[in-house]
Structure formats: structure tokens, C-alpha cells
UniProtKB/TrEMBL annotation, chain A:
The protein, known as: Anti-sigma-K factor rskA
Keywords assigned by UniProt, alphabetized: Transcription, Transcription regulation
Membrane-spanning intervals of the chain: none
InterPro entries: Anti_sigma_zinc_sf, RskA_C
Domain of life the protein comes from: Bacteria
Biased composition (Acidic residues): 84-102
Organism: Humibacillus xanthopallidus
From TrEMBL, chain B:
Gene3D superfamilies (alphabetical): 1.10.1740.10, Winged helix-like DNA-binding domain superfamily/Winged helix DNA-binding domain
Name of the molecule in the record: RNA polymerase sigma factor
A biological-process GO annotation: DNA-templated transcription initiation
Entry superkingdom: Bacteria
GO molecular function, one term: DNA binding
Keywords: DNA-binding, Sigma factor, Transcription, Transcription regulation
Organism of provenance: Humibacillus xanthopallidus
Length: 284, 190
């Protein structure tokens, strides 16, 4: 006998007893001797039992706004900067947007390196044209492609950091607040943190005067609440000395104003290790 | 006219775009399903911190593993939930290990495993999500058939629908949900 139809298996598995006895008997006889159909019947019964046990409604709980920023940040620092995202869907301009290169230096500064060596005259021409367009038109086009809003904000801030414009008085984007980061024991000033307004909200930018030692773990940036009881992780500080993380105004308003960089181990624990390297409190 | 009656058509298109490396597809998937992923993680693990961490890991893993999504299975929601289930299990294993280590240090006695909450949050919440998305009358028919255990005839009379329509909703609906559950199982058991 050929396999029963899926409909017939549903009727057998969870039918309401109204299928004709002769049909039911022949389907049932087949299923007894067929592992595949028996498995399907078991799956259907399991699913029906889950439906029966499903709560009538669920209070859905969305993650906080910071999570998407952490995702794009993670992907941009690890995959765009390190070895580039897969070639599909990305062209050279988009890669430039996420990589702090000469393009992001102020126009007056000499270009230190080309993003890549052009292979043909055509390509060289295209790159030049692209750069001119960018110099005139700003970042709008680049930000409309590539990663979503979170990454767009992040790459803007990374670009600013790379150009060191953020610490200069004539910077077009004024930090909302900034603070020196110092070591907890000797109070040595070894970095800076700033909250800057980006196109999509707020970014926390962090820069250290020299790369921090992550030991055999990694570095994580936190915002501690001034009540001393609560904290949120804003992201992982990739090797290097600068990074930017999208944050929300709500966090600042709620008192998460102490920037903290900790050394974390790869131990699977999402909690703060207690090993803080640098810290500073943003002015109100 | 290019109007999709079936939201799955559009959702399957997201899977195609993700596979092709379209970053906007990941952003759209996050908009649609991050709440589902986060709620599953929160119910399974109990803390917001862990839940957000898992949510982050799920979408990073979705991007890196985008070649494993199967557009022919329709909506990638079940695929994301499978990844979520896997990550939740990882966090639980990690908790169990650290718990065991702590106990071992404290008492040097081999300990009984900590209670594992195996209440199938991934499957249960995906089901509720799918029922909500499925809309009426199919969702109502399924609930009446399986929650209230009513006969198809009874449901047909109550909802004023032809009996054949009720039977069709029960069959199509249950098979669709079964496919989602299988997808969760396939992805989470890797």
C-alpha cells in the first residue's frame, strides 16, 4: 500500500472520530508497519499537545534598544574591519564606510594609506569619483546602505574617532558630555569617554591613550548606575584603542553615567568580572 | 496584482535575501522577531541580562550562519527559534558547570544535577506566535479543536463554517505548525 496522505495521517493522529471506520482501519494498519508515517503521526500528536498547552496569550517582551546596536557593532568590528564581510552585497565604498581609513581623515590631512590597491585604471577612476562625491555630499549615501541604523551610527562615530575630530574644538559634532577615564588604584588618566549625538540617537565613544591589556580574555565596556546597584553592558571593546557604542538617552536619564572598562574572561558569564581597568563618571 | 495573501511568501523572501548576504534582511528579521527571540530567552533563563545576551548571539549567529536558512521552509522564524533554543541550552550548560564546580569546591562531593527547566519555551512561544500570526478563523479552529477538544461538526456550527472548511483548517494548520516544530528541532540539535 502506498503511504496515506498527510491529511489522512492528521485524521488518524488527532481526528475527532468521524472518519469512516474502513478508511481509519486501513490507514492505521499502514502506520503500524511504517516507521516514516508512524513518526509523522507522533509529530502531529506532539504538536497538537503543544497547541493544547499553549497559553491563551503571552506578554511579549522586546529587548532594549541597545541590543541591535550591540549586534551591528559586533559584526562591524569583527567582520567588516577584520577580514571584510563576504563579498556579496558589499562594494568597496561600503567597506570604506566601516573602516577608519584615510577617507575619514579631515580633508587637509595627508592620506596615509589607500583602502586597497586599485587594479585597473577604470577602478582607480571609479574610486576617485567616489571620493569626490563623498567629499561634497558627506556621508548620506554611504549611511543609507550597509548595516542598519545602529551600524550607521557606529561607523559615523568610528570615522570621527579615526579623524581625531572628536577631540578638536572645531568638530562638527559636539560631545554631549565627556570625561577622562582613569585607573581605579592610581587614578592615572589613560583614556576618554564621550557621549555624542549621532544621526540616530546617542553614541558612547571610548578611546584609550594606549591599548589596554585584555590578558587572556577580552575587554567590555559598561555603564554603571550612579546608585551603585545597577549596570548595563554596552559592548565589547575590540583590540585597539577606540570604539563606539550606540546607547539610549533613557540610560543616561536613568543614571547610567559611570563609564567602566573591565577585563572579562571567556567563562560564559555575562556578569561583570569585578576586574575594572578604567572608570570615569560623565558630568550631568 | 502582486498582493501576497500569505505572509509566509514575504517572510520566505527574507530568507532568500539573507542567504544572499543582504544586511537589510537581517535588520528586518530583527524588527519582526527579536521580541519572540528575547521572550523565549527571558522565560527560559529568567534574567534580562542573559536574555539580551542570547538575543544578541542569535542574530549574530543568524548572520554568520545565513547559508543554513532554508527559504523553501517558508518563514525563517522557526529557524531563528531553533538557534535561540541552542543558545539557551549553551547558557544552561554553562550555569550547570559553574554550579557543579562551586559545589565541588564547597563539598568535594559529586552532586546531583541542578534542576533543568525543560518546559519547551521555544516551542510553546513559537506556537503562540504562529497562532497569533495565522489569524482567524484558522487559529480559532485549532484552539477549539485542541484546547477545547471539540468535534469538527461542533466547531463548524459554532463558527458557522462549512464542515469541510473546518477540517481543512485543522489539517493545514496542524501540518504547518508541525513543520515549524521540526525546523526548530533540526536547527537546535546541531
Amino acid at each position: 500500500m502506498s503511504h496515506p496522505t498527510e491529511d489522512e495521517l492528521v485524521d488518524l493522529a488527532v481526528g475527532d472520530g468521524t472518519v469512516s471506520p474502513s478508511v481509519s482501519a486501513s490507514v492505521s494498519a499502514h502506520v503500524d508497519g511504517c516507521d516514516t508515517c508512524a513518526a509523522t503521526v507522533a509529530e502531529l500528536r506532539h504538536t497538537a499537545a503543544l497547541v493544547a498547552a499553549a497559553p491563551p496569550s503571552v506578554t511579549w517582551q522586546a529587548p532594549t534598544d541597545a541590543v541591535w546596536g550591540r549586534i551591528t557593532d559586533h559584526l562591524s568590528t569583527e567582520e567588516l574591519d577584520a577580514d571584510g564581510l563576504d563579498a556579496d552585497g558589499l562594494d568597496a565604498d561600503e567597506l570604506d564606510a566601516d573602516e577608519p581609513t584615510s577617507d575619514d581623515l579631515p580633508p587637509a590631512a595627508p592620506a596615509r594609506r589607500e583602502p586597497a590597491t586599485p587594479h585597473t585604471d577604470d577602478e582607480l577612476e571609479r574610486r576617485r569619483a567616489g571620493r569626490h562625491e563623498r567629499d561634497r555630499g558627506g556621508r548620506g549615501r554611504r549611511l543609507s546602505v550597509g548595516w542598519g541604523a545602529g551600524l550607521a551610527a557606529a561607523s559615523l562615530a568610528i570615522g570621527l574617532l579615526a579623524g581625531r575630530a572628536i577631540w578638536q574644538p572645531d568638530t562638527p559634532v559636539q560631545p554631549v558630555a565627556q570625561v577622562a577615564l582613569s585607573t581605579l588604584d592610581t587614578k592615572q588618566d589613560e583614556g576618554k569617554a564621550a557621549v555624542v549625538r549621532s544621526a540616530d540617537g546617542l553614541d558612547l565613544t571610548v578611546a584609550t591613550s594606549k591599548p589596554l591589556d585584555a590578558g587572556d580574555g577580552y575587554l567590555e565596556v559598561w555603564l554603571l548606575n550612579s546608585d551603585g546597584k545597577r549596570m548595563v553592558s554596552v559592548g565589547v571593546l575590540a583590540p585597539g584603542d577606540k570604539a563606539s557604542f550606540p546607547i539610549s538617552q533613557t540610560l543616561i536619564d536613568e543614571g547610567y553615567v559611570i563609564v567602566d572598562i573591565s577585563r572579562e574572561k571567556f567563562d560564559g558569564s555575562p556578569a561583570h568580572s569585578g576586574d575594572s581597568l578604567l572608570r570615569g563618571k560623565l558630568p550631568a | 496584482m502582486h498582493v501576497h495573501d500569505d505572509p509566509d511568501v514575504e517572510a520566505a523572501d527574507l530568507a532568500v535575501r539573507l542567504r544572499a548576504g543582504d544586511q537589510e534582511a537581517l535588520a528586518e528579521m530583527y524588527r519582526r522577531w527579536s521580541t519572540l527571540v528575547h521572550t523565549i530567552a527571558l522565560r527560559s533563563l529568567g534574567t534580562r541580562e542573559d536574555a539580551e545576551d542570547v538575543t544578541q548571539q542569535v542574530f549574530v549567529a543568524a548572520w554568520r550562519g545565513r547559508h543554513t536558512v532554508q527559504p523553501d521552509l517558508g518563514s525563517p522564524a522557526a529557524w531563528l527559534v531553533g538557534i535561540t533554543k541552542h543558545r539557551v541550552a549553551d547558557v544552561r550548560t554553562e550555569r550547570y558547570r559553574s554550579h557543579r564546580n562551586m559545589q565541588a569546591v564547597a563539598s568535594e562531593v559529586a552532586t546531583s544535577p541542578v534542576t533543568v527547566d525543560d518546559s519547551n519555551w521555544a516551542e510553546r512561544l513559537l506556537l503562540v506566535h504562529e497562532l497569533e500570526r495565522m489569524g482567524d478563523p484558522r487559529a480559532t479552529v485549532l484552539r477549539m479543536a485542541f484546547v477545547e477538544d471539540r468535534t469538527h461538526e461542533d466547531i463548524a456550527q459554532t463558527l458557522d463554517l462549512p464542515l469541510g472548511t473546518v477540517k481543512s483548517h485543522v489539517r493545514r494548520g496542524l501540518i504547518a505548525l508541525r513543520d515549524r516544530m521540526k525546523e526548530v528541532e533540526r536547527v537546535s540539535s546541531h
